UniProtKB/TrEMBL annotation:
Transmembrane intervals: none
Family: Belongs to the short-chain dehydrogenases/reductases (SDR) family.
Catalytic activity, EC: 1.1.1.-
Native source organism of the sequence: Streptomyces fragilis
InterPro entries: Sc_DH/Rdtase_CS, SDR_fam
Keywords: Oxidoreductase
Keyword presence, Cell membrane: no
MF (Gene Ontology): oxidoreductase activity
Protein name per UniProt: 3-oxoacyl-ACP reductase family protein
Amino acid sequence: MNRLEGKVAVVTGGSRGIGAAVALRLAEEGADVALTYENNADRAAEVVERIEAVGRRALAVRADSGDPEALTAAVDETAAVFGALDVLVNNAAVFLVGPLEDLGAAEVERTLAVNVRAPFVASRAAVRHMGEGGRIVSIGSNMAERAAFPGMALYAMSKTALVGMTKGLARELGPRGITVNLVHPGPTDTDTNPADGTGAGAVAGLTALGRYAEPAEIAATVAHLASYDGRYITGATINVDGGFTA
């Protein structure tokens, strides 16, 4: 399928996990893709190679999503290098969890900076380059709708904030032909949350399907929202969680 032929996308936190799967899927659908990463240049380079292997242009930009200036510069660089920007995927996030008493100001500030402020900042930067048909897709979490375990309050709060941002931007940008949506993944098999990790069996048991998702399954929904096929979906929160919140 080439639903994104001729489009340019930027994926924050695209060097691994769901972000890497999204970047590759968008490229397979025809898009040129930039990705941001914070530390692991080697992993980012691997994703770039995989994108180029399917015949698309790729760019890796080092940027801490908690730094508004660096994140804005990364979005602007994508548009400058590729000559356009059509799709933004707000994927970068931090997962700082623990008892309420153990989460100090540093953890709160970092979580809000990366999980809440960064998607807003990146969206603000991206829409300066987008025309009609632009797409903004943010990656949330099933924890925003069902905080099933203790210690998740800070993380769940940060992901819940994306619901309000998505609805507000959908209203604001709809007249410009730009859609804004939110995907809530359920438990997904990544380096930081492996399907064979400690306690993973109990987590999988909370889903209706009884298993973790593959990152590619999340990426498939993002690709649909980013494509022309998703043109009448905006302001929506879509659970791709195997029935975790059912």
